[in-house]
Amino acid sequence: MQDEYRTVARAGVHETEVNRSRFLCALAPAATEQEAQDFIATVRKEHADASHNCWAYVIGADASVQKASDDGEPGGTAGVPMLQMLLRRDMRYVVAVVTRYFGGVKLGAGGLIRAYGGAVGEALDTLGTRTRRRFRLATVTVDHQRAGKLENDLRTGGREVRDVRYGEAVTIDIALPDADVAPFRAWLADVTSGTARFEPGGEAYGDA
Fold this sequence. Notes:
Elements: E1 4-8, E2 12-18, E3 21-29, H1 33-46, E4 52-59, E5 65-69, H2 79-88, E6 94-101, H3 108-127, E7 129-142, H4 144-156, E8 160-166, E9 170-176, H5 181-191, E10 197-207
Antiparallel strand pairs: 1-7, 2-3, 3-6, 4-5, 4-6, 7-9, 7-10, 8-9
């Protein structure tokens, strides 16, 4: 797994105009290829009267899925430059749809490439990006007497507390950067006098 990746901060639309043609770039995070395709279908339906709805998406922290469509524009002048812009910006788990309303002036191949790639770049600048980092999930089990202070120490120390469950003991789900696992175990043993139980789990991505 990649240690971290970047994705779009939020879904949104940014409009640019080139020689009277309107280019509306809709961006959205997409956790799966199906989510990306559903977003494309939604935009196409909303702009069914547009000249073109070209798209590109990158799924996977390692960019394992990369697809693009020119949607009737000359081959390689729309979807590919859109995809290249996403990759150049190191974007992952993201889908882009650029809707073009033709303004009567032909742009030529070079003009189209610049317009479609540029629309994605400007949309990323406007909507912003965020970094997601790989974390190790873990469970800490501690007695009720120590639980309140421990949870408080975790939160004030900037640890990501994902869940707290109360039973015979208190179970706290946390997420740690891999490099912090060993120091955290030592700290946990120290602050709980060795009474807390630490169980490492799987891996997940969270905001860096």
